[in-house]
Amino acid sequence: MTLASPAPVSVADPTAPILDFRNVAMTFPNGTTALSGVDLTVQRGEFVSVVGPSGCGKSTLLRIASGLESASEGTATVNTDRIGYVFQDATLLPWRDVQSNVELLAELNWQPKRVRTPKAKWAIDLVGLNGFEKHLPKQMSGGMKMRASLARSLTLDPELFLFDEPFGALDEITRERLNDELIKIFVEQKFGGLFITHSVSEAIYLSTKVVVMSGRPGHLVDTFEVPFDMPRDPEIRYTAEFAKLVGEVSHALREGHS
């Protein structure tokens, strides 16, 4: 048994996976074991979605990957220090407009204004918020807030992007639209992505690979390669091939929860 270091180990090897979990387990101080024996890799340019029942440790995986938590056992190797993290809530500062909210992470990383302002403008354009730079969060829809949150992380030029159910609270039409926007960004930026969701169809539509977790303590019970080309045609959601894969993943999810 190898105990994890206080934060993910960073290895300067461009050929290595961007994220590599080996036998990762997580037991909290109250005795709750959230994860057990998790082996998971994310390659550069690979988008991996994780589906599993509530409480199975999906979000804990992200916190370990980001360094916010340390695994109780196993090793978590992160081959970059450029990590973007998009939470379930947009977490925008209510007194800052879109431009200054998007600049925030770059500002906290001591990037000078002459650097962070054009970078924020680039990210705002990329997520489709151009024209809304001076809007405050209270003037924006839920979808617009999540776009701003995504843009904020993009200013860090992440090589590893972590997503903790960012679209879960949105209506279906807005969610599908943001899925399409995220795919465009993924294709353009070629980051490694780890995406947590409760939606099997969203996981398949976004991903190059879907992994299924068991109930708590969470471990991986199945992996599905997604055969559809990137970028995705939105109409793929209504094909028999897509429906078949949704059924297979859903079956594995039910089996892993039983």
UniProtKB/TrEMBL annotation:
Residue ranges annotated for the ABC transporter domain, each copy included: 19-240
Q: Which UniProt keywords apply?
A: ATP-binding, Nucleotide-binding, Transport
**One Pfam family it belongs to:** ABC_tran
Q: Which GO terms describe its molecular function?
A: ATP binding
Q: Per its record, how is this protein called by name?
A: ABC transporter ATP-binding protein
For this protein's source organism, the top of the classification is: Bacteria, Bacillati, Actinomycetota, Actinomycetes, Micrococcales
